[in-house]
Amino acid sequence: NGANTALTLTGANTYTGGTTVGAGSGIITALSNLPSTGSITNNGTLTLNLTADGILNNNMSGTGGLTINGPGTAVSFTLGGTNTFSGYTTLASTGITLLKNASSQSILNLQADGTTYDLDGADQTIGGLTGSSASHVFLGAQKLTVNTNTSDLTFEGVMTDGTRGSGGKFV
């Protein structure tokens, strides 16, 4: 799609050739409306509107960001593919839990109160971390490595071992 435009996908799409989000543009869709195959090249903003738990299994690359909106109730979302995109990953609605596999180059933004990043049993590396005072990171017994090779960032939330284990480590 073109610069400074947004494309909203409302149908259940089955194309297999991949999805490209152009620089300065965006795609807005329910997770179920993205095809389950094909890679995503994201140089703009991909906005996913969740209505229930979901997994995005597509591989995502590019310089763009990912915004995840939820229904305002507890839902979990997993990035299941190989993810190397470098824009922000923003959890924008209360009640969203991101389960592991965030992009190692993306800055994770737990923007809304009540958002959670759960390492879910796997060591993780992310490009940066920022979040509201009512956001949470659950380490379990795993290690979270945050590469702060960008500007200064502030995480106001809470990191804890939670109920998933003990001995978590923040690097």
Task: Describe this entry's structure for a reader.
- This protein is mainly beta.
- It contains no helices and 19 strands.
- The protein has a seven-stranded parallel beta sheet with strand order 1-3-5-8-10-12-15, with no helix packed on it.
- The radius of gyration is 15 Å and the shape is globular.
Concise overview:
The protein is mainly β and 171 residues long.
Q: Give the overall shape, derived from the CA principal axes.
A: globular
Percent of residues in helical segments? under 10%
Oligomer: single chain
Mean pLDDT score, rounded? 86
Write the layout of secondary structure elements.
Blueprint: E1 6-9, E2 19-21, E3 26-30, E4 40-42, E5 45-49, E6 54-56, E7 60-61, E8 65-69, E9 75-79, E10 89-91, E11 96-99, E12 107-110, E13 116-118, E14 124-126, E15 128-131, E16 136-138, E17 143-146, E18 158-160, E19 169-170
Parallel strand pairs: 1-3, 2-4, 3-5, 4-7, 5-8, 6-9, 8-10, 9-11, 10-12, 11-13, 12-15, 13-16, 14-17, 16-18, 17-19
Which features characterize this protein?
seven-stranded parallel beta sheet, 171 residues, mainly beta, six-stranded parallel beta sheet
